[in-house]
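[Automated response] Your request has been received and processed.

Submitted sequence:
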Amino acid sequence: MAKMRLEEQDKYSKKLEDYKQTLNKLHEQKLVKLKQREADILRILKLKNDDFDKNAFDQRQRILRDFDALKKNRDLSDEKILKDKQVNFTFQYFISSSLFKQRNRDFSC
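Generated structure:
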């Protein structure tokens, strides 16, 4: 009877050990899959973050180019306005000068 108990105990101990090994293997497999999934997610997040940073940089560069173009256009407009004022001033001076009045009298005769 004791011998049967020992045999049965050995039998169930081996079964229990087999189950433990099976569970440990399953656990290891799931752990490897989980680590791989985590690595994939981190890689995808890094790619998205890099893409976001690149797009943000490109957008900033476009804004700077647009700002520079607007500044250049404003400077050109300011120059044109200044030249127009100078031409207008010169024309007004010429009209008010006696030389213009004298020439105008010469043509009217």
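Summary generated for your ticket: The radius of gyration is 46 Å. The mean pLDDT is 89.
If you did not submit this request, please reply to this message.
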